[in-house]
Write a structure and sequence with these properties.
By secondary structure, the chain is of the alpha+beta class. Helix content is 40%, strand content 29%. The chain has one domain: Jelly Rolls. The protein contains five helices and nine strands; from the N terminus they run βααββββββαββαα. The chain binds adenosine-3',5'-cyclic-monophosphate (CMP).
Length: 150
């Protein structure tokens, strides 16, 4: 269960957001606004954070630890990527309004921040550069997945 952030944590989140490369184009006010909309969640090694095929309503930003991304097949699964601090996932279902395209599992215990559908859309709407970066990353990931399938 995700918790809304207590006030004392907002500063830490604020600092964390400032270090994330794809958010570099955000102004301090926008960073502050985004910090308010985030919720913190811990994840365990082996925990399924996102399950392929399920509907999705959250965007995830990794603060600590790593996750593995897998494409599930009829028989077995293919490892697509390992993501770590400062990287994000869960953008595709929110952008395309489509079920989750892959399964995401904790690789080591970690901490992440989640952004719900509406604040995520607001961030994209208000920040074309962030939108472009997230869209480009999603397209690159899709292209890589397609190449793996071929
Ligand atoms: P979504 O489809 O919402 O849920 C699964 C997520 O896995 C997906 O969004 C992406 O964020 C992530 N994902 C899918 N393919 C890759 C990839 N090749 N590299 C990194 N992340 C990926």
């Amino acid at each position: 269960m995700a918790l809304k952030l207590p006030l004392e944590e907002l500063q830490r989140v604020h600092q964390m957001l400032n270090t994330i490369p794809f958010l570099k184009s955000l102004g301090q006010e926008e960073i502050k606004e985004m910090a308010w909309a985030l919720a913190r969640r811990y994840f365990a090694k082996g925990e399924t954070i996102i399950k392929q095929g399920e509907p999705g309503s959250l965007f995830y930003l990794i603060y600590k630890g790593k996750v593995n991304v897998y494409k599930e097949k009829l028989f077995g699964k293919t490892h697509l990527a390992t993501l770590g601090p400062g990287e994000f996932f869960g953008e595709m279902a929110l952008i395309d309004d489509f079920p989750r395209t892959a399964t995401v599992v904790g690789d080591e215990p970690g901490e992440m921040y989640t952004l719900a559908h509406d604040p995520f859309q607001s961030v994209l709407l208000a920040n074309p550069q962030v939108k472009e970066l997230i869209m480009n990353t999603a397209e690159e990931r899709k292209a890589r997945n397609k190449a793996l399938e071929a």
